[in-house]
């Protein structure tokens, strides 16, 4: 038996009747916090309108390419500087080699004078005899043995008539240098010493004795 508000249910237990009334017109109370905690977050399903923007993706790509281009340009610039430095070094070494090759192959009086002037110019710049010889890769004793030839040609070229021209078929260059040394008289030697003190000639000691 039922009416519009309640429904009754009868249960028989140990010859007793139990009546239970269950109201249907009142909705059960549920805490809204339960639904809030169970509902999925909107942030998991909705993306920022900027995240999927093609313009933003294009801009990021351009920035990345620009950064790579700048790094490559910096590397290339450094590489160019290294190559230029290496080029200058090799050029300097080549110049030294050519210079030394020219002055080592001295076979006559003109060659002796040319070598002497090159070493003299370097000595006047570096202010060092040893560095000048090292720069031209010439042995000091070799230059000293032929110095009288150069000094005679520079200080007293008129005395060449006394010494005569060098003839490689008749004598060695060392023998010709000794004859030039003997042709240096006292007056000429004083001029030579004065020029050596003022660094206008190489301050080198003779290897010959009178």
Automatic annotation (TrEMBL):
It comes from the Eukaryota. Residues 66-100 form a coiled coil. InterPro entries: CCDC106. The keyword Coiled coil applies. One of its GO terms (cellular component) is nucleoplasm. Keywords: Coiled coil. This is Coiled-coil domain-containing protein 106. The gene is CCDC106.
């Amino acid at each position: 038996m039922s009416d519009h508000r309640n429904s009754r249910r009868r249960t028989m237990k140990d010859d007793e009747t139990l009546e239970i009334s269950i109201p249907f017109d009142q909705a059960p109370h549920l805490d809204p916090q339960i639904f809030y905690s169970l509902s999925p977050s909107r942030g998991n399903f909705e993306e920022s309108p900027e995240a999927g923007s093609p313009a933003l993706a294009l801009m990021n790509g351009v920035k990345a390419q620009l950064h790579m281009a700048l790094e490559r340009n910096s590397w290339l610039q450094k590489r160019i500087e290294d190559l230029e430095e290496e080029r200058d070094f090799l050029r300097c070494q080549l110049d030294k080699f050519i210079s030394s090759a020219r002055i080592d192959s001295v076979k006559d009086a003109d060659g002796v004078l040319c070598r002497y002037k090159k070493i003299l110019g370097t000595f006047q710049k570096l202010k060092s005899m040893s560095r000048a010889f090292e720069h031209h890769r010439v042995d000091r004793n070799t230059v000293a043995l032929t110095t009288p030839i150069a000094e005679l040609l520079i200080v007293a070229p008129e005395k060449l008539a006394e010494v005569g021209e060098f003839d490689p078929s008749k004598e060695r260059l060392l023998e010709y240098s000794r004859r030039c040394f003997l042709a240096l008289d006292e007056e000429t030697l004083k001029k030579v010493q004065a020029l050596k003190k003022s660094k206008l000639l190489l301050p080198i000691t003779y290897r010959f004795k009178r």
